[in-house]
Amino acid sequence: MAHKLGMPTMMTYGFGQIAEAIKNQGFGVFLLFYYNQVLYVSATGTSIALAVALVFDAVTDPIAGSLSDKLRSVWGRRHPFILISAFPLAVTFYFLFNPPEDLSEFEYIM
């Protein structure tokens, strides 16, 4: 007979997905709309900037994975990186949606 997980256990397992879900929703839903409709940056320029970011991510993800695979700490291999990345991610996310005013379209996508 299969053991059914309780709600606290299921919530604990799902808690780790919150940060990724917020980032993905911000990028996938709001970012292109915000830069195109609110800041009046062309959809082409915004899409090119997002594509460059994805290519950069494709190059750096294996490097980050390799570094975390080799790390040995009292907190495990991945937890130090997760903890260290929380603050820069929050700051970057804030500035991504609060850019300086009066920039040209090119400056917005750079």
Number-wise, the strands total: 0
Distance between the termini: 57 Å
Count of helical segments?
A: 5
Mean pLDDT: 85
Strand content: under 5%
Rg over C-alpha atoms, rounded to the nearest angstrom: 18 Å
Assign the structural class, choosing from mainly alpha, mainly beta, alpha/beta, alpha+beta, or little secondary structure: mainly alpha
N-to-C series of helices and strands: HHHHH
- Taken from the alpha-carbon principal axes, the silhouette is extended
Oligomer: single chain
Instruction: Report the uncertain regions.
Output: none
The largest sheet is:
none
Number of domains: 1
The percent range for helix content is: over 70%
Entry keywords:
mainly alpha, extended
Describe the overall structure:
This protein has five helices and no strands. The model has no long low-confidence stretch (mean pLDDT 85). It has one domain. With 110 residues, the chain is mainly alpha-helical.
Structure described in brief:
The chain is mostly helical and about 110 residues long. Helices cover about 75% and strands about 0% of the residues.
Fold blueprint:
Layout: H1 7-15, H2 18-38, H3 43-70, H4 79-96, H5 105-109
